[in-house]
């Protein structure tokens, strides 16, 4: 006789995302694994007196979402520090800084982040706004996209940054007319002050990880790749994994120090390994910056505010020839390589590096990927499939909103602006797709990203469709957020679809995404999240 299930979910649409049986109405779980998928009648024999039975009542069941590029520990640190993500403009951000400083008089530094470039003229907040509310303590606040910092005068003074401080090779100090630092530090320049901020202790890092994990579970995320794992972050994951506090499956992308070369590979090899649900097997290389501050690496120059060609083509943080050597060596050592590339030159340099690795080492199953891909030259679109490189997309950014319309498109020009976020072109060309949020840069809610991937309009707003030919079908977008990311994380034999034998990583939503107009996707809520059949998040409405 077949043993009863521990958990049965029935009475609603089950979107398995498995190609051989995409739809069902019931799922049974035993010992953390799915033991049956089918109609309600199919699981009835598995329902015993001790079985937990969940009546979906028409609500949908999906595979757990998986985020291919996210920073939950950094996000958690911001959540427990001075968090500006809920601010809507400069005034609210400044008020939040004042409130945090008043509530934390013992804090030597006011640190945190979450401000948005669109709140400030030219995208560059002034130190004087912070001086007005915190004149006596240093303030260091990371931009929402992680590519810059907003600091006050006291922080600049304590860090020794002044008019005579040169720009670092990988960044830029925004300056006032006389040359004094204005208060915005782009890319590597942010470290001129950031390195003086006191390091959080192990207990704080663990609290940050737990806060980030709770938020991701609430969004239905059951697995992710953390795209910036330094030694402090790795210790937090290991502590959580070994104590049982880590309830998600996580791949850690070990941070590549762009100021060093291949001499760091033995250190990365020593850190590679697995503990519980955490595995460190990827290496993250940041190849360029972002378009909004003109540090994304482009094949042709940026324009200025008048539409004239400038001399700036952005920054390749790693020399392209060195990048080919590094990636080839990492590939030979068995690492997956995860590259940040926003500009079309950075994407090309990453593809060239993967091509060099394949030529030197042959084909393998490391599943390398390139994240962000804001601007991709059309000539490079077919190369993803040819090289087996996954396009790791952050769909929420692919819409008309102020940062796009005011800080990006005017400085790219019409031809290059039309190359942005070519999700459908990549898919048509055979590229594997994965999806993520880059939280805390943007919301971790997959349904907001799904909304933009399918509609190419901002959630909850009536706006012109952004490059409509690049819209994805709902199924293609869902697969990227589930099976696609599971594949990148080498979890596809265990998760990513609802199939018998796979782990019961599941999400219950308040509505069936296939039964509503595409424009309503962003309003979908996650009611419950399960990892191996154990509920790790419950919405009050469930």
In short:
This protein is an alpha/beta fold and 542 residues long. The chain contains 18 helices and 23 strands.
> In terms of per-residue confidence, which ranges show pLDDT below 50 for 5 or more consecutive residues?
none
Determine the fraction of residues in helical runs and give it as a percent range.
25-40%
Distance between the termini: 33 Å
Please tell me how large the radius of gyration is: 23 Å
Q: What fraction strand?
A: 15-25%
Class per helix and strand makeup: alpha/beta
Summarize the biggest pleated sheet. Answer: 9 strands, mixed
The total count of strands amounts to 23
Instruction: Compute the average pLDDT.
Output: 95
Shape: globular
Our count of helices gives: 18
What does this protein structure show overall?
There is one protein chain. The chain is α/β, with parallel strands linked by helices and about 550 residues long. Helix content is about 30%, strand content about 25%. The protein has 18 helices and 23 strands. The strands form four sheets. Strands 6, 13, 14, 15, 16, 17, 18, 19 and 20 form a nine-stranded mixed β-sheet that branches. β8, α4 and β9 (about 140-145) form a beta-alpha-beta unit.
Name a few traits of the molecule:
single chain; 9-stranded mixed sheet; 542 residues; 23 strands; 30% helix; 6-stranded mixed sheet
């Amino acid at each position: 006789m077949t043993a009863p299930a521990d958990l049965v979910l029935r009475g609603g649409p089950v979107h398995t995302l498995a190609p051989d049986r995409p739809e069902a109405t019931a799922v049974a779980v035993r010992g953390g694994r799915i033991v049956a998928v089918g109609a309600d009648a199919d699981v009835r024999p598995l329902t015993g007196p001790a079985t937990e039975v969940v009546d979906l009542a028409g609500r949908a069941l999906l595979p757990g979402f998986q985020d291919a590029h996210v920073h939950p520990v950094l996000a958690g640190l911001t959540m427990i520090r001075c968090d500006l993500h809920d601010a809507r403009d400069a005034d609210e951000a400044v008020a939040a800084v004042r409130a945090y400083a008043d509530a934390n008089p013992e804090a030597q530094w006011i640190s945190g982040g979450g401000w948005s470039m669109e709140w400030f003229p030219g995208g560059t907040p002034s130190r004087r706004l912070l001086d007005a509310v915190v004149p006596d303590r240093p303030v260091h606040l990371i931009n929402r996209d992680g590519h810059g910092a907003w600091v006050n005068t006291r922080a600049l003074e304590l860090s020794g940054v002044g008019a005579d401080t040169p720009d670092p090779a990988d960044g830029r100090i925004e300056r006032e007319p006389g040359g004094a630092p204005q208060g915005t530090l782009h890319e590597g320049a942010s470290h001129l002050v950031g390195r003086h901020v006191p390091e959080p202790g192990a207990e704080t890092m663990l609290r940050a990880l737990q806060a980030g994990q709770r938020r991701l579970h609430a969004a239905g995320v059951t697995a992710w790749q953390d795209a910036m794992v330094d030694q402090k972050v790795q210790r937090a994951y290991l502590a959580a994994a070994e104590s049982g506090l880590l309830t998600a499956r996580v791949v850690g992308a070990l941070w590549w120090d762009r100021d060093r070369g291949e001499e760091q590979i033995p250190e990365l090899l020593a850190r590679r390994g697995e503990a519980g649900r955490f595995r460190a097997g990827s290496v993250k290389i940041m190849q360029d910056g972002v378009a909004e501050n003109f540090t994304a690496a482009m094949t042709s120059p940026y324009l200025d505010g008048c539409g004239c060609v400038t001399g700036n083509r952005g920054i390749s943080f790693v020399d392209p020839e060195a990048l080919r050597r590094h990636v080839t060596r990492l590939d030979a050592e068995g690492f997956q390589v995860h590259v940040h590339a926003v500009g079309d030159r950075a994407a090309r340099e990453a593809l060239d590096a993967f091509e060099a690795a394949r030529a030197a080492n042959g084909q393998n199953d490391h599943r390398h990927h390139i994240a962000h891909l804001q601007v991709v030259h059309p000539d490079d679109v077919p190369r993803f499939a040819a090289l087996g490189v996954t396009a790791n997309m952050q769909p929420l950014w692919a819409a008309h909103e102020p940062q796009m319309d005011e800080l990006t498109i005017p400085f790219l020009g019409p031809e290059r602006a039309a190359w942005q976020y070519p999700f459908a072109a990549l898919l048509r060309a055979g590229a594997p797709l994965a999806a993520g949020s880059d939280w805390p840069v943007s919301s971790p809610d997959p349904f907001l990203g799904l909304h933009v991937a399918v509609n190419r309009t901002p959630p909850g707003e009536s706006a012109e469709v952004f490059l409509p030919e690049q819209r994805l079908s709902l199924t293609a977008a869902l697969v990227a957020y589930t099976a696609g990311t599971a594949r990148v994380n080498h979890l596809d034999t265990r998760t990513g679809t609802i199939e018998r034998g796979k782990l019961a990583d599941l999400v219950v939503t308040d509505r069936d995404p296939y039964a509503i107009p595409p424009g309503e996707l962003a309003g979908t809520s996650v009611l419950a999240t399960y990892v191996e059949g154990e509920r790790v998040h419950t919405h009050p409405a469930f």
